[in-house]
Amino acid sequence: MKKALAILLVTAQLMILISCGSGDSSSESTVTTVTTAAETIEETTSGRANTPDSLPADLDFKGQKVSLLIRHDVELFKSEFYAEEESGDMLNDTIFARNTAVEERLNIGLNVILGEGTWNKWNAFIGLIEGSALSGDGSVDLVPWYAYEQAGLAAKGYYMDLLSDQISYLDLSQPWWNARLVESATINGHLYYAIGDIALSYIAMMAAIAFNHSIKEDYIGDVDLYELVRGGKWTFDQMFSLSRDVYTDSNGNSVRDEGDIFGFDGGRGDQFIHSAKVEISKTGPDGIPVLALNNERMATLVDTIQSFYSTPGYAPSTLKYDANPPMNTTFAQGYVLFSNRYVRDIASLRDMEDDYGVLPLPKLDEAQDGYYTTLGDSYSQVGIVIGTKILDATTATMELLAAESYRNVTETYFESVLKVKFSRDTETAEMLDILLSGIDIDFTEVFGKLIDHPVGKMRQVLQDTCADFTSTYAGIENGVNTKIAQLYETFA
Questions:
Q1: What pTM does this model have?
Q2: CA neighbours within 13 Å on the CB side: how many for 310?
């Protein structure tokens, strides 16, 4: 099946990003290009491949075209849904086969619209969604897009309620949908987007710990990190005790700078809130969620992390290296033992000289019931644009894309790409399984953009020894809870 290519040029204005961080009709597919200025894998391969869906076997949509608007400016997000033809690349060819299987079984055509939808460059992308929703012309049907931004579009009424009686073929009880996100994203009995195996970023944007084998052997050679994980002993105290004294002033200038060896670089600290199983929100007496971060586990986590940052083993976030991404980090250059990174970033280190391994994020203590992680907020949540003229075909396509991904694409990406092509040791496969089994997403993150992103506010506290948790939390609690209550009114 050969794709026909149509080019659409759209011009957009740039947005100014202000960030706050710490101190340190045919069944043949068509493609439209828009140019502008992150479940438990317990099943075996055959188990996944043989898992049935609940779609009627005789569905026939008479060649209707289902239009997906996707990001093309980052390869990960483009490759989730777009494969123009078979190329010999295992992942591309599996995506191509999935798309072909969906088209043939449902007798639809996938019209993939490629748009520039990354941070600060998405005006035209949003314009296409808005134009389709407001006009009802059906130009866009499905949108897998930036998770952090999707709530804002849902609040404007651009997406359909996936739990409404109008939705015929979506089965959110199936294993290819993340049940935790369905729960966290449901508000007043409404749900406007879903995620799971349908998008590769569901796996790629998981947060994990990467470690450098060479530095490990030099400094803590007798420690079996994988056994610590298996034994439930991989905790923050354990990780920091192994890394706090890992420091070598390689250039002898008595300055902790580029080229020195470190124990740990922190990354985005808010991911640790999930790995420590801190309660982020809870249901209030009126049934509406309220912020709940001011608890003992959070206080322990903050103290544990901030105490480590004053030790020699902590690699300052200000370090810069003369190399192109992704090789411009302390870890990629081979100068740090442990690094908090997304799976996507670890998988990109094919040019790294040192061998490396992958571990789950640590637990807060050994009594914790398991290892948890979360997703970077650019992972793709999938929504159906209001006013689609082919709703049944769109919902069936969304369901079958997810099912076929579960049966084939995830396994290819997970087993053949991450575990084999990119990983440097056999244990990495086991660690990735643990990661995938512990994905956690909270209500306050799904709707973070609309409630002042409280978890993001905690990022500074967990990255800066000078930041005070008590005052920071006190400064946001009432405002966030007020916005949550207003949010429930918006989605009434």
A1: 0.87
A2: 6
